[in-house]
Structure formats: structure tokens, C-alpha cells
Amino acid sequence: MRVLNYLLKMGGTYQNLLIGTFKDGYVRPDGTFSTADAKSNYHTYNYECKTGERFKVSGSVVNQYTTLVAFFNGDKFINYLGIGDVGGTYKAFIDFEFSVPTNSDNFYLLNVGVVTLPEVKKLIPIKEISNTVNIAKNDIPLLNESIGEFKDIELNKLEHGYYKPDGTFGTVTGSSHTVYYTNVTPGEHIRVTGTVQNMYTTLVTLFDINHKAISYLKTGVQNQSPILFENYEFIIPDGCYEISLFNFSTSSSINPKIQKLSYFSIEEVASDINQIKNSINNDFKDKKIAWFGTSIPAGGYIGLGNDESYPMKIGKILDAKVYNESVGSSPAHCKWKSKITEENPYGFNGNYENCSRALGNTVEEMQWIIDHWNASFWSNPPKSRPTNIEEILSFSYENKLKKHLSTGSEPVDLFVFDHGHNDQWHIDSVTPDDPYDMFSFQGTMNFFIKMILEDNPRARIIIIGEYENQNVPKISQAQSHLANYWSIPIMPLWEVLGFSNKKITTTGFWQNGIWQKNGGISQEISIINTYLADGTHPHSDLSGKTTEYITQQLVVWLKSNIRFF
Fold this sequence. Notes:
19% of the residues lie in helices and 29% in strands.
């Protein structure tokens, strides 16, 4: 923890900024500015910033349409951090910390209804603040940020008096002017705490091996009260083997102090990296997440153990254990009432692959599918009786979901549903008359959520929204309705990824799964198809950039919106 504490301290100091430029209204997650619902308590403030700068902000939002921080380049929207809950009340973010993303030169901060907010603090990096006067014309190196901790050096040779800038010593009757000495070595990193009184007293004087003054650091100001220098840092120059520290003693003065930086070994620094990482991600550290979905989050056919899938990448970043239960071609449900016949008593939709991987099936139903693999109603039956019987049975919610309940063998802290894409051919955007009707997407999802909440009423459940809402809008509509029905969070990926179905003309093209920005034949292509090589799967971009893009968006949202009891 020594390395951790030092690294956190060495970052710099956060300083409060003045209230920014006021603008009536708020920025939506899509970057548009709304004044339609603006009230007197919607306070939005604009601040200038630069890429990479760090801030801590305190503000509040009110629902999923308001963003806490929205980054812009001029008037061009870049990204946002922090939104409210669906239909929520005021949600305060206190000391919400972030780095300014690339190309941003200003950001808006929202505060709704909290009288004591907003507040903005900017990180001021550590800098060398001395103006060094070198008597012997020897340069004193500028301070470098170093990895280590400062340890006290014993003060010795106490004398009453002070050193002048010319290197001579002045004596003063009484004990208020005090000088302390210690031996040093060139290159050492020193930190001192002491005071100066006027233009004739020096904070630090540097001596050669023969105790001859060669330079000094800091004097007081004529006719000014004593000035305190607390934790003032510098590096010992060549030729210096002794220093003095001055302190003007008063009843309220701080005890003088000389410290030397003791460096940590590479091994100590390396061993502490995980502790630093854990301190940043402490909300998700060691949490367990069950992620259900299609080939999109699975990153292929089977999500379990697929480190290249975005759920697994997210778990690694958040220091959480992710069970990626997603399966390629898996829908939430695969049974339609209109399909029920004597030959098809369960009403399976006729797609064998789809039904044999549906999360909403019981083990009994999965076994029926296996036993009736060659029924005439299947549109794509296997060529022979399936041999992956245990695998098919494992895809049932009775094996895949129930084990993650509090009473199961692998209980989790968070349930993530990333379903909907494979249900698009038979999906309702509203809840059916029977909210738990397993012949509908909504009913099946309601069945899952009810099961989880009956096991643990405080279980954390979220929905990952479809990556687009233009080509098949009923997917996002059904997901939003589901989130509203249960008042659970939804991450509207369609609002943040920019996977538009609008077409553009470009010479960019896909080559062996890698997008080439230009150089091809001019073509008209949908924006979404510049991210998805096969038009559907993020992992079809073999560069990994699309998967990484989705990963980062979800990490930011999870860290900003999800907390645990």
C-alpha cells in the first residue's frame, strides 16, 4: 500500500473552479441540447477543457434523458458520462472523476434541483514552483516525479541565526531564528518544511564538502510576515554535500522538517499495480456477473470462456468475474401459439438451431427437441440425431440461469440480459395480456426477471439495449418497455454507438475482416456496415476495434450507473 498511497498523492492537487457559463436546458445522451422541458432548476454550466485533463465534478440528473457531463469540440458532440434512471428522481453524483476524451475542448455539467451543487475541481499537476538563485552558477535540476516515499532525516547542528542570500551567516539574539543542518548526496530528492521571515533569510542553503555556501533556495519578502513552505521539494545538485534549513519560530509555526525520498523497487511497484487498479474499480472488484444473450455478446457460438467477447473484456477491466452465458443463435423464446399442432405440441417456431439454443426452454422441452430432431416441421433439421445432447440441455434456463440465483451453485451479484436480436421475427413491443406468457419475448423476459427477484428482491438486473434502433426499431422498443415495466436500468447502445442505417458514399471497404478507410471503388454503404464486417456481429471486425469500442462504452456506463447493496 505504500506505493499505492504515494502514486495517488503524486498526481497533484484538485482545485475548485469558478462556476462556468450558464445555459438554460440540458444535453441529451445523443448530444442534442434541449430547452423544451427546461425549468428554473435545470442548471447547465459550460467549462473549457483540454484532452487528457482530469476533473472531479459534483452535479445531478433527473432521468435517462439528462446527462451529467457532455463533451464537445466547439459545438460538435463527442461523448457523455452519467445519466439518470428511467423515470427517476434527482440523482446526485459527488466527486465524479474523469479524464477529458480526445478532441474535447469544452464540457457541460448539469445540476437539477440540488441547491448546494454544482462543483467542479480541476487536477493541478505537481510542478517545481521555486525560482532558484545559484550563487555558484550551478544549475539545480527541476523536480521529476518519482516513485517512492519520503522519510524523515534527523536534524542536527542546530544554531540560532540565519543564512543570507550571499551565503554569509547572521546571528540574532534570542531563539526565534533557527538553522538546522544535515548531510546529503548529489542527486537525492529532498523535501523540506520551514519558514522565512524577510528578504535577508533563506529557506535552504546548499554547501560543498568544505561547508562553503554554493547556492540557496527561497527567501522571504521585505516587510512581509513569515512565509511557510510546506513540503517544498528539490534535487541536490552536483557538488552539494550539506544543506541548512531555516525556520522562524513562532507559537503557531509548524515544526521544521527535512525528508529524503526513498525509492521503491521495481518489484514493489509492480506488485502494487493490482491494488491501484482495484482501488479505481472498487465498486465491481470481485463482483460476479451472469451475462445472457446471443452471438453478439458471445463473440461467436459459445460465450463461456471467450476472452475476446465484450462481456469477458468488461469483466477484466472491472476486476469482476463474468459468466458469459451467451450462445450464438439463441433467442429468449422460440414458441408461438400459432405453431401448436399435434406433431408440434409445444409450438416451436420451426427453426431447429434457434429452438435448440433458446434460453426460455425447459430441460424437458430441450429433450423433446433432441428426440424429435427429424420432425417434418423443422426448416433446418440436423442430418442425424444430435450428439451434443449435454450441450443442448445446458442451454435451458433451468441449467443456465437458475445456477446463478442466490440458492444456486454459482450465485452472482448482477444479471445482464443482452437478448432481443434473435427474437426480432416474433417480438412484441408491449407486454401481452398475460405478462408471463412464454409465447412472447416480453412474457419470457418477465418470467426470467420475476424468477430472479422472487429469489432475491434486491437482485441487480440490467438490460443491454440493441446496437441500433432504425433497421429493426421494435427490438429497442420492446427492451425499453421491459425496462420500464420493471424499473430496471437499460444501457441504450443505440444512442451512443452511432450505428446508423443512414447511407454514405465512400471508397472505404472491408478486406479480410479489416476495414480500410479508403482506396476502394466508390460505394454506397450504411454507417453500421462500416463497423460490422458481416452486417451483424461486432467480432466480424477482425481488428477487434468494434468489440473494443462497445466494451469501453459499456464500462463507462456500468461504472457510472450501477452500484451494489
